[in-house]
Amino acid sequence: MSFIELKNVCKKYDKTDKNAVTDFNLAIEEKEFIAFVGPSGCGKSTTLRMIAGFEEISSGELYIDGKKMNEVAPMGRGISMVFQNYALYPHMTVEKNISYGLKNMKVPADEIKKKVDWAVKILGLEEYRYRKPKNLSGGQRQRVALGRAIVKEQKVFLMDEPLSNLDAKLRVSMRNEISKLHRELGSTTIYVTHDQVEAMTMADRIVIMRDGVVQQTGEPMELYEHPCNKFVAGFIGSPQMNFYYVKVERDGITFSDGKSAKLPDEVMAKLQGRNRVIMGIRGEDIKFDSQNLDLYKDTRQQSVIDNTEIMGNENNLYFEFGGIISVARVSKYEVSKIGDVVDFVMMPQKMHFFDEETERAIF
Amino acid sequence: MLTKKQKRNNWILVVVMIAVSLFFLFPVIWMLANSFKPDAAITDDMNSFAAFIPPALNGNFFDNYIKILTNTSFVRYMVNTLFYAAVLIVLGIIVNGLAGYALAKIKFPFRERWLMIIMLLMIVPMETIITIHFLFIAKLGLLNTVIGYILPMIVNPFNIFLFRQVFVSLPDDVYEAAQLDHCSPIKYFFTMVLPMSKSVVATVSVFTFLNVWNDYLWPSLVFTSGDLLTAQIGLNAITSNDNTTMGQKLAVITMITVPVIIIYSLFSKQIVEGVVSTGSKEG
Predict the structure, then answer these.
(1) What are the pLDDT digits (tens) for A64-109?
(2) Could you state, in order of their start, the residue ranges of all structural domains in chain A?
(3) Is the Cα torsion angle A42, A48, A49, A55 positive or negative in sign?
(4) Of the candidates A99, A40, A37, which has an alpha carbon nearest to the alpha carbon of residue A227?
């Protein structure tokens, strides 16, 4: 049995007829870092709160370390948690915030001191030890919340969008700190976020949810390379994957604006028997350089640059094609200006195809 | 910069405010000034401006006060009242605070209805239910006891409402964090909820003190023995005694009024904050 197991876990709130979470199944190994990701309202926080014990599990089973936890109170589940709004005790100093749980757990005073010393040291909070939360910045507060969670040395670490209140720069550095902390402590971590970048960069495995239903579970690159449906394909990756509604022809596809592309036989073989499909391609798989233009000349197209986003390390080019505003990601050396007429190719082996009705991946 | 017209208007406002405050203050000043005078001086000064000016400081200056404090049990009545107030503040915060917390944060059937009922109780005048209180306490055989006096005073719908309004805005995740920190609900109330709501605790304490200090009707019904009387009852007993001089009466009234004025001026900020926050923090 895995360390944490969720079996057909459902959440249904009173007075609603739709499930907030439906048939959530997941097995989490010890020391794994799992991210629940999805748009707001997808049920990721609800699932986390069910694991914590703050929400009742309507049906299904939850096991932590082999014990069924459905009816166990939060404090008996061996978990600690970091909350989105920090949830610090406002009238207590940093030190008291961190030691409060240990005191309640009747840990001896000298041991508490040792643990608090250790926590404030690794979190860089030494000089703020006697300050109250209101005199700390957002990042410092979040560190206190982390400190409060790590000193208890619980087996499971739950984090509910811990970085969403921080500014972009701080978020990146805290992301690294949390990853490092996870490696050092080796606790099993479940991390909820709506930010796919956080999920991709930190997690061993990602669970993507939508409308209370798990869409796909897998390692970050697996989700990126092999999304199981259009939603996952669109959610993971930035800029978003381009989706075209295309007609399958004998030897290629026709876009809704009438342009067509010839595709290799092995791709066409998989599309056999289909009439209309959704073709998805990521921005970095649209190429503008002469070598690729030559290599994939069967898919060669032309368009006018509509808008550009200069990121510094790379550029996003926007242009109208196939009935949508498409986006391509190019290196900083490939400079195009608004209004430029450009030729480009789409790499056929990087194309994703989805059923038009079910939006499931065809391959 | 203020224009000339605004400046003039400000001055008019200041003058009007001073006049109005004097109008309200003059009985208090008169009381204070005359509480230091022998009766003869009070009568002599009555028709002149001297009625508002205290006598020159001499050996007899505090005579009225000394007589009251030595010849009557007024000190004891004041100590009684302070004791009742202290007990009622502590019990009131616990009982009304817990009720307010339940109404704000704990889910139970008909919670909103309960809140409505408690709020309706706020509009019932004390005088209409005091007979019931009296009969109840009499049936329990608690007349002329401290418990009999305190028991019906603990629960206060207005204070429950005040607590509820403040507690409703406390973040739920702090409670959840405390749960994971092995904090029991009762411990959470005392170590988290109350310290996080200091201003409403201060407001309720001040209101409770003033309530106990100024109450006349209920202690006059419950208490018959001189040992347990409150300051207000004592005041009545002393002022209605024919042997008490006018100056002594004024001294007693001064002693009972001054704490209220001090409390109000010390805590006016908290009182306003507490009441204002209960209205605006809802959400």
Answers:
(1) 999 999 999 999 999 999 999 999 999 999 999 999 999 999 999 9
(2) 4-232, 242-355
(3) positive
(4) A37
pLDDT of amino acid B116:
94
Cβ A83–B192 below 8 Å, yes or no? no
Residues of chain A with pLDDT under 50: none
Contact A322, A355 (CB under 8 A): no
Are residues B59 and B80 located together in one domain of the fold? no
Do B26 and B144 belong together in one domain?
no
User: What ipTM was predicted for this assembly?
Assistant: 0.86
| Nearest residue of chain B to residue A148 (CA atoms) | B181
pTM as predicted: 0.84
d(CA A334, CA A296): 18
Q: Which domain holds residue B213?
A: 72-280
A52–B195: do the CB atoms touch at under 8 Å?
no
User: 């030559």: which residue's tokens?
Assistant: A294
How many Å apart are CA B156 and CA B133, to the nearest integer?
Answer: 14
What total number of domains does chain B contain? 2
Query: Which residue numbers of B have CB closer than 8 Å to A's CBs?
Result: 171, 173-174, 176-183, 187, 192, 195-196
Q: Where does A4-232 sit in CATH, by number?
A: 3.40.50.300
Tokens of A169: 């720069």
Cβ distance B180 to A91 less than 8 Å, yes or no, reads no
CATH class in words for A242-355: mainly beta
pLDDT in tens, B177-189: 999 999 999 999 9
CA nearest to B175 within chain A: A87
Both B44 and B133 in one domain: the answer is: no
Residue A210 falls in which region: left (phi positive, over 0), alpha (psi -120 to 50) or beta:
beta
